[in-house]
Amino acid sequence: MGMQMIMYSGGQFLTGDDIAAALLEYSRALGEEDTAKIVEIPILEEDGSRAIATFLIGPASQIVTKSVRTDLDELVDAEVVQWLRRQARGITHPEAAETDEDQENWALMPKHGDIG
């Protein structure tokens, strides 16, 4: 099965294709606005367990993704993907933003509680 390996700040993080794509879209939008935000995305550990990785993304972010093959089931989280894409659209098309608070507050990002 294929997934994406995110390489960021010297670390590697395995996540689903859609999650990685949405993170890149949001990072690009933030870079265009010369602003940074903190986001959390679900990742898979080497043993297949889920965890949360926290990223500071913005104009200085250098995020690289690479397609990898793995025997693990692809990590899917439609809620996180929708949230990231909604945030990116709110930056590139402010009229599409739901609220200013939603735009500014990373704490509104979907929480996954204790994952492990």
Class per helix and strand makeup:
alpha+beta
Give the strand tally. Answer: 5
What form results from the Cα inertia axes? Answer: globular
Largest sheet: 3 strands, antiparallel
Oligomerization status of the protein chains: single chain
Characterise the protein shown here:
- The protein has 116 residues and is α+β, with helices and mostly antiparallel strands.
- The chain has one domain.
- It contains three helices and five strands, in the order E-E-H-E-E-E-H-H.
- It has helices at 17-32, 78-92, 100-104, and strands spanning 2-8, 11-15, 37-44, 50-57, 64-69.
- The strands form two sheets. A three-stranded antiparallel beta sheet has the order 2-1-5. Strands 3-4 form a two-stranded antiparallel sheet.
- A hairpin with a 2-residue loop joins strand 1 (2-8) and strand 2.
- Helix 1 runs parallel beside helix 2 (78-92).
- 27% of the residues are buried.
- Residues 100-107 have low confidence and may be disordered.
